[in-house]
């Protein structure tokens, strides 16, 4: 389906939902539950499918670079790995989190028919994220002493620090990219993002091979190609948005982008804290694994487990994007029952898919580790932690969806406090005690983190079940007025 016509193609479904909302809970008294479910699944997959592909393609950019650098040398591989995981990883989480504020504002504005405000919101996010990138560039510049401070060897720290300075352009590409993604996502124009990301990845594959392997440019070639690929991705989306495909939501640059920046910043900051508290937990597991008696075995096993979980997580990540759009659109349009129904369907779908992954991994626990390593000790360790990995995958079917509901409804600040308490006061403390104090090794660390994730899932589930969706729809209308509304179209 042509992505440029996505808004018009979804309009009849959204209008029909409005009529059904007036009849009852999606018209269940007059139409079958099965038909309602099929319609909801069609709208969800229309968003989630391309969103999953986009995440996979963009996730693969750094993975391709890291894989090819591995043919240069072990120190270079470690340097690029540390830069991707720690330096760029921290910045990626912050920028993505701050850009997620648009999922609430753009989604609700689109549902309310305030299309011109979407472009204003995106421009405000560009301003805030650009200043954030300027601040985070200091982290890139001084990454060498920071990495040494956390115990990384001098050789790796020096090389990773140099590579980080070369990767500063990527940081500013994040600042432009994430607001555009949320802007397009809110309008369900997601297929364009998938095609642009796919084109950037194909180009990146060729240029990386040419510069890193064929021409032997080493880390310089790696930095140049990765930066260039992100620029291509950003420019492609800019051309799509400003070329007429979003003529109702993009009406040109406006001075209104510089109004309400303080309030916009705090919502963006709450979104960043909410996401980063989750994302940084994974890095903490790796750091704690390095403190065990056999750190190399533990770190390798933990990395393999998280690699598997990361790929499985791409589907819930797409559902997170889809449910945040559906909830924000329906609340903005004043259809709380439709938002509630969408939550029910996407949770059921995510649980079914992730359970299938969990069963496959559990059945192949003695076999799949060979894909990642030839070391017998590492393979045995991965087999031992597979039950913990499977629990993580199962919880990953519910928790991201509930986080997407929170973003769509604008609960970022509340969830940030929930994440702080669950992940760090409960999860991290339990991980340290069980893994290091009681000598339960990597199983203890992972088990402690799982306690935090389980508690967070339960809390978010209770919040969602107790939500007054009629009140949330009223708050969405109030939020739209406070952040601009029809009176602010310029």
From TrEMBL:
Entry GO terms, CC: membrane
Membrane topology: Multi-pass membrane protein
UniProt keywords, alphabetically: Membrane, Transmembrane, Transmembrane helix
Transmembrane segments: 43-62, 82-105, 126-147, 159-178, 190-210, 216-243, 264-288, 308-329, 341-365, 385-409, 416-438, 444-465
InterPro entries per UniProt: MATE_euk (IPR045069), MATE_fam (IPR002528)
GO MF term set: antiporter activity; xenobiotic transmembrane transporter activity
Any GO BP: xenobiotic detoxification by transmembrane export across the plasma membrane
Predominant subcellular localization, coarse grouping: membrane
Location relative to the cell: Membrane
Residue stretches in coiled coil: none
PANTHER family: MULTIDRUG RESISTANCE PROTEIN
UniProt similarity note: Belongs to the multi antimicrobial extrusion (MATE) (TC 2.A.66.1) family.
Listed name of the protein: Protein DETOXIFICATION
């Amino acid at each position: 389906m042509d992505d440029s016509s996505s808004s018009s193609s979804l309009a009849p479904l959204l209008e029909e939902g409005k009529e059904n909302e007036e009849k009852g809970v999606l018209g269940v008294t007059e139409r079958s539950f099965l038909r309602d479910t099929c319609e909801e699944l069609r709208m969800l997959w229309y968003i989630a499918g391309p969103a999953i592909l986009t995440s996979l393609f963009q996730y693969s950019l750094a993975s391709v670079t890291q894989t090819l650098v591995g043919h240069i040398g072990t120190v270079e591989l470690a340097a690029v790995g540390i830069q991707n995981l720690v330096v760029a990883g921290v910045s990626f989480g912050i920028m993505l989190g701050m850009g997620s504020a648009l999922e609430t504002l753009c989604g609700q504005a689109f549902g309310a028919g305030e299309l011109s405000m979407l472009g204003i919101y995106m421009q405000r996010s560009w301003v805030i994220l650009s200043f954030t990138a300027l601040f985070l560039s200091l982290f890139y510049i001084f990454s060498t002493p920071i990495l040494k401070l956390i115990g990384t060897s001098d050789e790796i720290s020096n090389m990773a620090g140099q590579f980080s300075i070369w990767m500063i352009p990527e940081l500013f590409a994040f600042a432009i990219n994430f607001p555009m993604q949320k802007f397009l996502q809110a309008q369900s124009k997601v297929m364009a993002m998938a095609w642009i990301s796919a084109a950037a990845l194909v180009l990146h594959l060729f240029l990386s091979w040419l510069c890193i392997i064929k021409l032997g440019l080493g880390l310089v070639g790696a930095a140049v190609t990765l930066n260039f690929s992100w620029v291509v991705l950003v420019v492609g989306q800019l051309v799509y948005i400003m070329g007429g495909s979003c003529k109702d939501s993009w009406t040109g640059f406006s001075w209104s982008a510089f109004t309400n920046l303080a309030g916009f910043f705090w919502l963006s900051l709450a979104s960043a804290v909410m996401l980063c508290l989750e994302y940084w937990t994974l890095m903490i597991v790796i750091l704690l694994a390095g403190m065990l008696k056999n750190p190399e075995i533990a770190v390798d096993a933990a990395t393999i487990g998280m690699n598997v979980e990361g790929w499985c997580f791409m589907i819930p990540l797409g559902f997170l994007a889809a449910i945040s759009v559906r909830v924000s659109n329906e609340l903005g349009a004043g259809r709380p029952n439709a938002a509630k129904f969408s939550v029910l369907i996407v949770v059921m779908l995510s649980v079914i898919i992730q359970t299938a992954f969990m069963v496959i991994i559990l059945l192949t626990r003695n076999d799949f580790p060979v894909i990642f390593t030839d070391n017998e000790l590492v393979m045995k360790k991965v087999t031992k932690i597979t039950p913990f990995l499977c629990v993580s995958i199962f919880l990953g079917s519910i928790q991201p969806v509930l986080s997407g509901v929170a973003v769509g409804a604008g609960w970022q600040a509340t969830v940030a406090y929930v994440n702080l308490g669950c992940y760090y006061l409960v999860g991290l403390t339990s991980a340290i005690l069980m893994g290091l104090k009681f000598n339960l090794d990597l199983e203890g660390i992972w088990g402690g983190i799982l306690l935090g994730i389980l508690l967070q899932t339960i809390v978010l589930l209770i919040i969602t079940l107790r939500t007054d969706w009629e009140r949330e729809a009223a708050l969405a209308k109030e939020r739209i007025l406070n952040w601009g509304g029809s009176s602010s179209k310029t």
